[in-house]
């Protein structure tokens, strides 16, 4: 043993917060391992200090031992020779999916070491068996640093994880991992997947105080798990022990200690200043939406208990928690408030949650775990009018809603230690999430209306445009998501080979749907040029051609949207993996995973089947000096991702999405336009629905379920990504460790939909950027397979690439301070974000049609799409730590700094090609003009500044700085059972724009009043006060 290694082993170093631990364990496992060296033939006994669980293994002929698949907790490790104890280690902490090295020497060098506190980081400082990249936090560590009390906030402390404000779940943003879309992550509770089965955006959560450990994987995990091309979050709940524990806690974030959020203002466009001829359009620099009147406060309280039911055999843990978040504020813009019935909202979120766990040590070799989790979200909202002139809300309720999402999760797991070398485990779980909605005063005879000050015709009372509607959309009654999953794993140690194999099956079903309140919506609009076609690409003529108020450019469209479906997915996988200790210094990980995905329509027919998806997972780690002070590691792998249920709801079911355009002469008191005259439509363009000659549907979604053969390309490949990582970690001294890691990710195949004219109408699920074969209906009603090359589809090659250099330094200073700092330089670029399109967010969230985004629909949409992607952040700095001032007082904190998100400018396409979407969706900036040939009727030239504008080429949002601090007091007079704590989040109250409105125009000739407007800001400073009593 080297002098350096010997010093480390004796020192009992203090744990560094968030240290990435591994060992001969696996990615999303809920157990950990203790391994090490000793004299061949001797025995090692590991005993859980909380439950009494005990296992004895024999040191093999090579001087190595391993106790695998241990429940997390603190252990005593004892080395025995000829029945006599020769060495012990106390308080060895087992971390989920990680290994802890407890070595006693070998070959006659066994020493009776002093008893030493061995915690997660202490032995060794560099884990020479770790191949993947992970960050693990325990509940104790989380409580010491100032951070949000939710799973996403903890995940954001890991390198390469960024916030994406376009998507939320459980009231928090859904993060992006390593340049992937927010839907490409996987989430687990006690080994069972709890990712949203409908959209893959978000996850089921639990009482935060029930969390024992959270593992965040950002790459390189083995063959045991898949179905993620972003990252993985693995949560393990607390469990009972032989000691009875109970407690109560409360957290309060009062409004009085919260800073005001920033108001939103119209940008200075240069078109809508005080010199504009139309007073309703003098908006430059004016107030868009007031947010300073917004108020909110949060209260979270819970109780827990744990302990033995039968000593050393049967244990329980239970937690019940209720979180309430209440608030009020202006929910409408200054222009729309006059016609908005819920311009002022008073709301309340309730999150009643519970978690329970039973652990039964049937014997020391046979364990059974049962977990139950309830995650309920209740949302109440009351709507009132709001007067921007006086700054006062109305006192008569006009709108409201009550929504409830109720999740129930049950998981059972058996673990059997059949021999020292053979372990098996089996897990089965089920989850059901029920969704309900009760709109206040909903009248199905009152359709929704939409207008603004600039789209309302003069002479018509603004109140008429408001209509009588109270619900924007109505969800189908009885909606639910349900999953069932089973996995079986075998772990066998054969000499220097740690062999693992298993099965992993999951089935998910969803019944879902929604439609516009009242069945459809009246959208009132206006164009600067009444003689210009509203949508020449789809054959919609000019407002003036239909007379009435159309002569002044005013028109209205009747828009229908309905989708209802009951859909299902089945996913299965088999894997095998060998962790081969080639030499004392070199470990190889050789894995292979095979996955099968099936997606079903509402009629129960398979519309996508993907099988024989082989995913190699290879890794190596080299203990350079053989003393755990310097390691080099590398891994390479392929990762597949299945289509969620949501794809079938719109693409493989009878969805309806149509628009019919009219001019009008007036508006009735219920919001219905009067004097309607159809704007002429050229049916020869091919975008009208059968029997509805004036109803336009760009994707021909006319309410009829498609033949399942025509939904997706034949032999559709799954979404998959290749990843390569190389890195090193080194001990600097007895207190500090540093490391560096380079990651490269390349998205090789994606799934999206295309409606390119080359396919002759309609939309298909396909693999972008490559040749695809489709079933196409022929004139005689038969179907034939037709293959199109990427060139024939007129679409570019798929590209999404991510590379990153991560550097970290962690450790302790003396015995009172410990922490970690991480710096990441990265680049995320290409022509697709992945399954989502968050850069389409105009203030209400990104596009949530997973794997059916607007990207790839048309060739014109991909012109200029190659550039810096929305999840690109060139620089990130993350730091966290804690300092124990005295036995009673402690301070902690976290710091998150990142460079801005790329900005873009989008407008209309230069030419009004047939089939183009009529919107500012294209990578051009400025006014496109009529898009027709010069000299033709109604020709309008583009603006002088109209030009090509590649994605992400308009600079970045400002850098974001978030400093969080905490102060805790644990008085000795209360026997350290009471903790009073104050956390200040965003201490500096830096509220920076997080994204901007990127649409330059509202139609081909009219600038958008909001282009370059900040749409969101960093959350303002808030103070969280807490008190807890544990005994």
Automatic annotation (TrEMBL):
Residue span, TonB-dependent transporter Oar-like beta-barrel domain: 346-601, 606-991
Its membrane topology: Multi-pass membrane protein
Location of the TonB-dependent receptor plug domain: 133-232
Predominant location category: membrane
Annotated localization: Cell outer membrane
GO molecular function list: carbohydrate binding; siderophore uptake transmembrane transporter activity
Residue intervals passing through the bilayer: none
Keywords: Cell outer membrane, Membrane, Receptor, Signal, Transmembrane, Transmembrane beta strand, Transport
Key word Transmembrane helix present: no
Family: Belongs to the TonB-dependent receptor family.
Name of the protein in its database record: TonB dependent receptor protein
